């Protein structure tokens, strides 16, 4: 797996090219092979009508965590497309900050399945607020989709 | 269904209390009973690493369209929680603007199922880029979750 | 699309090689390009603990309807694998017979997305009992997976 | 949680009233609080056109494992309805027998989320073939839906 030795650097660079991550204030806080974490401080501009973190923003961060977990194991000349994902919103998106953990459940040369979990963090124990299962496709040779 | 006569105004007000919608630049462009549409101009700040609209932002707008489609049929003293949704990302999020259409597939007093479709619009025909199925729960008597 | 001219016959043959369809008593009742229907009489042996058609059996028939809807548009030397599906069970599986309708929402050379709907039929109007979104992958050159 | 002390017996009884489980040859092999396992020998009558265990049968067994995992924590006078589930089919359903593991991810008084995993077992290590996330609703006072 020589060609993924530099996956941390490639993930950081790719993440840095995602303006949506800057817009929602997300940062990469952990990169391991097959596992990535993203964090987000609570920000009122990301809330829905009840003042809670919008479920769509939860899914934006989870999708990104799952995608980069998968990214860590693909060849350097390949990229990924998210085909689909499902999110269960289990508790209100209320907290000082949020942790989004993505990891590979099933690697593959064409299809990679990843699972994610989102946690709200304040004082006290982290609270599970959402889970995701995402299906990604490994793509090669598409010049419009690189990294 | 007297108590939903003013659903258009209630939806506009609730939408106006969603900072996340302002952050992504979404506007309500159609409100019918059991069907709502939201539009979004393309904005580079919402893109992922390939310059396409982030799948999470697609799901944020679809979730909102589905939620308000459901909102149009619930009693005035009730509110909605999205329990879960699934998104299929079918074509790249590339276009001048995007249309998100949500409609109720199965109404209910406790559980409402809605389906959404997202389209990219430029010159030429609208292009289907994503679909969603969302499950919402009707909640009452929770003072922290109103409207 | 010359090579799909005989899709009806290929679908009938493939369906006939699915013992699971015989086990649940399903029959193909409609084959169009991009759209397939399957029917099933109510059978107590397929029920769950409340005497209703088991949700897993609903998904078995819907998955098959969606798969053959996709099958109708792929090349003759290709086959399909269901990558994932989601089912919403919206009303109890109670009826004299059940109709499962699958159709393609998004065709593609690698990934095909299909949607399905299940109806319970007795006297009176057909009742929507479930919906499915399924993601299929077109595969070629795998001798273990043909037709 | 006195009223769930006898959850093992109640689960066995409810499982025994599911003709679909007998039809597919499934047996309950493990019942713990919040976790249930079901097993199934390979049977050609449950296969699809490639001779593999049908994905719908995989989902039938996973749905049942997830439902009884949830069943173990609800009050004795309550029952469960599966609202929706998503299945990812990750490897072919090929093996001597299959193990379906369901466990609660998020308990709740109204909504319970459970996750399931399916494994194919032959000689050698168990192989993960599918995962499920299922959303169940706790229902009371519906005489047509008991146990």
Account of the 3D structure:
The structure is a homotetramer of 147-residue chains. The first copy, chain A, is an alpha+beta fold and 147 residues long. The first copy, chain A, has one domain: Hotdog Thioesterase (Thiol Ester Dehydrase, Chain A), CATH 3.10.129. Helices cover 22% and strands 41% of the residues of chain A. A 6-stranded antiparallel beta sheet of chain A has the order 1-2-4-5-6-3. Chain A is globular and about 45 Å long. The mean pLDDT of chain A is 93. Chains in contact: A-B, A-C, A-D, B-C, B-D, C-D. The A-B interface holds A 14-15, 17-20, 22-23, 44-50, 54-57, 59-64, 79, 81-89, 92, 144-147 and B 14-15, 17-20, 22-23, 44-50, 54-57, 59-64, 79, 81-89, 92, 144-147.
Counting structural domains of chain A, the number is: 1
Approximate helicity band of chain A? 10-25%
Give the radius of gyration of chain A. 15 Å
The pair of chains with the biggest contact is:
A-B, 40 and 40 residues
Mean pLDDT of chain A: 93
Cα separation of the termini of chain A: 17 Å
User: Architecture of chain A, according to CATH?
Assistant: Roll
Shape of chain A: globular
Main sheet characteristics of chain A: 6 strands, antiparallel
Domain Thioesterase (chains A, B, C, D): 50-122
GO molecular function, one term (chains A, B, C, D): fatty acyl-CoA hydrolase activity
Family (chains A, B, C, D): Belongs to the YigI thioesterase family.
Protein name (chains A, B, C, D): Medium/long-chain acyl-CoA thioesterase YigI
